Structures are given as structure tokens and as C-alpha cells.
Amino acid sequence: MTDTIRWGIISTGVIARKFAAAVDLVDDAEVLAVGSRTQQSADVFGDRFDIPRRYASYQALVDDPDIDVIYVATPHNYHKDNTLLALDAGKHVLCEKPFAVNVGEAEEMVARAKERGLFLMEAMWTRFLPAIVSLRKTIASGWLGDIQMLDADFGFKAVYDPKGRLFNPELAGGALLDIGVYPIALASMIFGKPKRIQSSARIGETGVDEQNGMIFDYEGGKLAVLNTTVTASTPCEAHVIGTNGRATVHGMWHEARAFTVVSLDGEKELFDHSYGDNGFEFQIREVGACLRAGHTESAIMPLDESLEIVETMDTIRAQWGLKYPME
Predict the structure, then answer these.
(1) Can you name the CATH fold of 5-126+280-304?
(2) Does 97 participate in catalysis according to the annotation?
(3) pLDDT of residue 12
(4) Residue 216: in which H helix or E strand, if any?
């Protein structure tokens, strides 16, 4: 591994732009190349972020011998194929969330990475934010007591576009895969895999879920109550409730900059972990640290957990009778 981790980015969309900007915040990383479906798109993206190598195909990108790791930033339905393309070219991969459309795809991705001895991680960027790292330490310290419940929501009012990524079943659209993965991953971080899942959804005209509610049961009667929507704005807060107190991750909790702990007697303490406008830089540093250590997965966002999260979403969609055309 070179002193500088050299990234290649598949896709030139909004999230790819955020990622490229985040790499500039990491001293020992650079975006060496970008791949798109057209040369024009690759060049525009390359000009914007001063990327030296621009490719008009994903295959040409992954074939670049100087790239260390690929960031897959395409829509959900392309994650498996793009990840396998990169792995087969001998490249490590950071794949945008959700990891895959279903657990069968996810298992294929993980198997290929292990077969080739390559690093693979789901880009669950929230997991690496300083506030969430601090929240994990607070929970582990016992300060909140025995954690009994998680209450988390995530919702925003999207512009309705039946052909767009959020509403198009051909792109594995819907609230669950796009933003529901955030509270599900938070519940997984705190409680692990649920013992029982109850859920309900409103399926829109295009055939994908526009809003949903989920209740996860765990051993000892512990609960996670989660809801997501792409048709309304919600508070976007997360409340972790224990026997000795509770922690509230404040508005837009998936961007977690601070949380407040409130004890049973009402005493409050604010944990401020502010960062700049991006936030992706923390997962980029984690990938770099793993690659330099020779690890093929992250202990903070392990592959077995990503598989469990996708399996949970499969179970939820089965309760709604929601299948995508590619399945």
C-alpha cells in the first residue's frame, strides 16, 4: 500500500460528489480516477474535483492498475454488479448503502471479496461519525443502564418523480432501502439482529414504499421503534433509552453532530462532536486504516452485520409483498 490511498469513483451523481469532496479532507487519500458511462460526464466531474484520470466506462476505471480502492456510488440496483466488477479487477471496494437489494446479492458480494482476499465494506458513514463513536462508548460504559428501547425516525418530502431513484422500482426505490437502512443500522449497532419484526408500509402508485413503520423485538423485551418516509418531513431524531437515563441524538441524527444524555433525576449533559459540512471523511479514514493494516473488512462495520441488515430489509419487504423487477 502506498503512502496515499488512491481512490477510483464509480458514478458522478450527488453522493459521488460528496465523497470526492470528502477525500480532499483526508491527508493520506486522493481521488485518482473517476468512471462514468460517458466521457463528458467523467470530464465534467474530473474538472470539478481536479481528478487526473477520467474514464468513459466502469470497466476502464477498475482496470487502472494504480487505483487501490473503488467507491461504488451508483443506485442500489447496480451495487452488486459494480462491486463484483471492481473485485474481479483486484480492487478493494467501499460500496454505498444499502449494501445490496437483497441478501442473495449481498452474499455473492461478500463471497467474492473473501475468495479474492480483498477489502469490502458498506458505506454506512453514520457509524463512523465522532458523535456516534462517542454514543457507543457511552452505551458501553453503562451510563444509561441497560438499554431498553430505540426510537428513531428519518423522513423528508421528496419531489415526486416516478422515474427517479426514490420512486422507481427499476432502481430499487422506496423509503426502506434509501433511508430506512439508517435507523435499521442504528438498531443493529445497539441491539444486534432482531428476534421478531413487525412492519407496515404505504405502497405508492409506482409500487414502492413511500412510508413505513417498523417494530423490532429483541431478547428481554427490548424494542426498536422505527419509521421512515419520503413524502413528509419528520423530526429526524434518535432516542436511546436505558434503565438509568436516555440519550437523544439531535435533529438529522444520521448526520450526528451532538447528543444529550439525560439521567433519571433530570441532569443533562451535552456531547458536542461538531465537524464540517461533509462527514464522509471519517469512513474514508477507516477504509485507509483497514487497508494499511491488511484487513479485509472493518470491525466497526463488519460484513456479517451488513448481511444481517439486508436480510432484515428482505423480511420487511416480504411482509409488504414488495419485490423489485430485478429479483
Answers:
(1) Rossmann fold (3.40.50)
(2) yes
(3) 97
(4) strand 209-217
CA distance 45 to 11: 9
Every domain range in the chain assigned CATH 3.30.360.10: 130-274
Grid coordinates 466488477 are at which residue? Answer: 85
As a dihedral over the C-alpha atoms of residue 92, residue 17, residue 154, residue 241, rounded to 10 degrees, the angle is: 60
SS3 238: strand
pLDDT digits (tens, 9 = 90+) for 95-152: 999 999 999 999 999 999 999 999 999 999 999 999 999 999 999 999 999 999 999 9
Burial of 267 (0-12, 13-18, 19+ CB in 10 A): exposed
Q: Which ranges in the chain are annotated with CATH 3.40.50.720?
A: 5-126+280-304
Whole-prediction pTM: 0.96
Active-site choice (18, 80, 91, 97): 97
Q: Single out the residue of 301, 271, 289 nearest to residue 130, CA to CA.
A: 271
CATH number of 130-274: 3.30.360.10
Vertex 38 angle, CA 113 and 87, to 5° = 5
